[in-house]
Write a structure and sequence with these properties.
It contains 13 helices and two strands, in the order αααααααααββαααα. The chain is mainly α. The protein has one domain (2-253). It has a two-stranded antiparallel sheet. The radius of gyration is 18 Å and the shape is globular.
């Protein structure tokens, strides 16, 4: 009974935090979650931590640094404690299944952007993944498509679509809550939010709760990565800027 009450209390906290976390995890540069992901990418590949071949345009650096510090505090004061408590009560296997289900749920964003970029084979792969995982994978909790059929995720977003259409990245931006981005990806973030199925949920509280749950679950699987990144960086702001820019350049080249 005590364990049940604790689990209920966790969900109560998520609902209370929903207004703060509602927009996290839904776009290209989704704040703390994406920062941790870019940090992990930089840590796994030394080339990504190296300066980019061309100078990165950052005319708003002073403002960006302030927002970077704000997002950093959001991670340590809100996201990490919430994700840590969440991980105490839900085993890693369960959290991975939840992450897989959310990945499956985001199928329309990937499918539409693959079509818009003319990557019809990849769009077909995404359609096949969705069909297999939604049925054999029990609503996507198990990635049967990748494990048994070799159908890997073909992740594309509208920022990449704009790049494929010839749009430049523009200058670097750090968005409050959302984290590292640039002009092109910020526009893409807005478009992708409309094709995100969560956007179309009838109830705003339900939509906010779903987004908050997705963010906390994702963060619980990456605790420690952002911390390691900060420890190894002489200037975390510059290192994150370079890691993000290099990451997006590599995504565009695929």
């Amino acid at each position: 009974m005590e364990r049940v009450l604790r689990v209920v209390s966790i969900f109560a906290v998520l609902l209370l935090l929903a207004p703060v976390l509602a927009d996290l995890g839904s776009g290209v540069g989704a704040g703390c979650v994406q920062s941790a992901a870019f940090a992990a990418e930089a840590g796994n590949n030394e080339e990504r931590a190296a300066p980019a071949a061309e100078p990165i345009s950052d005319p708003l650096e002073k403002l960006n640094r302030g927002i970077f510090k704000l997002n950093d505090r959001l991670y340590f004061w809100v996201m990490k404690p919430t994700a840590t408590v969440y991980s105490w009560y839900f085993p890693e296997g369960f959290r991975i299944c939840v992450r897989n289900a959310f990945t499956n749920f985001m199928f329309p964003v990937r499918f539409i952007n693959n079509v818009l970029q003319g990557k019809f084979q990849y769009a077909g792969t995404e359609a096949g993944r969705f069909a297999v995982n939604s049925t054999l994978g029990f609503a996507g909790m198990w990635d049967i498509a990748a494990r048994d059929f070799g159908l890997a995720v073909r992740d594309e977003d509208f920022g990449q679509t704009l790049g494929a259409w010839g749009a430049g990245s523009g200058f670097y931006i750090v968005l409050p809550v959302f984290g590292p981005s640039n002009v092109r990806d910020t526009v893409g973030l807005g478009v992708d939010s409309v094709t995100n199925p969560v956007f179309w949920l009838a109830s705003t509280p339900v939509s906010a709760g779903v987004k908050a749950g997705k963010t906390v679950n994702s963060m619980s699987l990456m605790i420690g990565e952002y911390e390691d990144f900060k420890k190894s960086a002489l200037d975390p702001y510059v290192s994150m800027r370079e890691a993000y820019t290099q990451y997006r350049a590599e995504e565009m080249a695929k």
